[in-house]
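S.,

Sequence below, as promised.
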Amino acid sequence: MTLYSNILTGFNANEVVAEITSAVADFNPPDGITVKMTGEQEDQAETMNFLLLAMVGAVGLIFLIMVTQFNSVGRAFVIFLEILFSIIGVFLGFAIFGMDISIVMTGVGIMALAGIVARNGIVLVEFIDLLVMQNVPFNQAVVEGGRTRMTPVILTAIAAVLGLIPLAVGLNIDFWKMFDEFNPHLYFGGDNVAFWGPLAWTMVFGLIFATFLTLVLVPVMYAMNKRCIDVLDLYNLPRGLKYVPFLVLILKLFMKKETVRKLHDPNYISPRPYHFFNHPEDASHDNGQAHASEKVKMN
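The prediction came back faster than expected:
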């Protein structure tokens, strides 16, 4: 036996299904009888599983491409975290404005958002790498990279957001009537906003939040890479341990305040070569670091 029902205007289908699911869980059917949710809810669950699989595959492919491009897991991981945190901005936007989430279009919007966010992060990280390879002091390179790339990142975000706003609000213009009768029949809403609106708002919220992450979080995490290496070198530990969560923080808790201040000095350089880049230019960079280290010790 199958029971069908329509959702009345003003009610959310997912909220109604959640209440029915809760009621079914409290119901004890007789032996031999099972209760199962089918129809639209079953299709929605299948779509969600497909989108989750597709999103994991897309983000994983982006991560592999970045590892190949930078020849470094650390830089790729910085941009990967930026993509992950940008999704938080999407859900924050929907929660603040009380909008309904469409499983399909929101999922597609998140995957499209990941590409834009990764592109902005790559532009910033590559420019900082270029400055570091030119023997610019590390902290100065991070600050200068963020300052120089701020304008392109902000302009990219503004252009994308302004281009998505008409789609998000359902702006409709009759171009034929506009040029023929000088009456564009301008109005907002319609059937298309119900379909394209969630995708557009997903990218708008995500881009606004990701712009802040690109300009603040990415340079900070890039600089944290060097600080983690400095702490591990002080204890003569393998540098690969910097990827272990909270390990460096725990090590710093057992340090003296004078040692922590020394490590936080912008001019501090580890006695071991950093090897930020695995190519011949790294040798000249390490020589520059050695001379700088001698100056710090002399001072």
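Residues 191-234 form the longest helix (44 residues).

Coffee later?
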